[in-house]
Amino acid sequence: MIVELFGPAGSGKTTFAHALQRRLQAQGHVAKVVLSYQPGVHSTPFDPGGLWYAFQRVVRAILRTAAFAFRPLNNADELRLTVKLVRILTPRNPILADKVQPLHPCPISGLAVFGRRSEIVIFDQGFIQAVCSLSLFSGVADTASLATVLDLIPTSDLAISVDAAEPLLSKRLKDRLFHQSYMERLFEADSKTNLQSIPIIRRVKGLLLGKERSTLSIDMSDERSLQEAIFRVEREIVEMRS
């Protein structure tokens, strides 16, 4: 079962993804989080500027791209999808484009890669989030373009829209920026740009609902909201699996 999270930066996607994983595992389910990114934890006393982090990130991007290019037949479907998405939503900043993880080889359509059929795979950064990010970084956010790319991407079993009040998002983004190293900030959009994703995400959510995709909306404003969201999503997953 594939569960995708999407929402603005700072909304709590990563926090919720790992909390949901722990809850599902405690209830006896086989669950794991993939494509998860925790900002602000990549600097060390030996590398306060984050140079080693930046080097690793660039090298990983090169290796992933090389692996993709040297096995064109094995990755033909993913390559065609990537080309179509980037053609419609072309990022204006190639550095920020590296943030869109699913555009690297990420076989959400090849579920066997992730193990047993009973497994619940929670995508912290899945294809829906990639569409939202590409739309933000390309400046293309019209309904027709978004509807087109949503029809192209693989369909998850459950999409979860994660949100929080805009003042809280702004505060979280400022706190995140404070804890990030200098080099890490180069790979991130600034707070103002990230907040501009809010109307895009709402538009995407409306399109998903219009396409009758299984979509839930949760609030991540505080600990109580987190616990309520976990129980709600858990019930939905159990019902869908039964």
Mean pLDDT across the residues is: 84
Helix content: 40-55%
CATH topology: Rossmann fold
Count of discrete structural domains: 1
Specify the number of helices. 11
- Give the tally of β-strands: 5
CATH architecture: 3-Layer(aba) Sandwich
Element-level helix/strand string: EHEHHHEHHEHHHHEH
- Backbone shape: globular
CATH superfamily: P-loop containing nucleotide triphosphate hydrolases
The secondary structure category is alpha/beta
What's the arrangement of strands in the largest beta sheet? 2-3-1-4-5
| N→C terminal distance | 12 Å
Largest sheet: 5 strands, parallel
Low-confidence stretches: 103-115
Radius of gyration: 18 Å
Question: Regarding CATH, which class?
Answer: Alpha Beta
Strand content: 5-15%
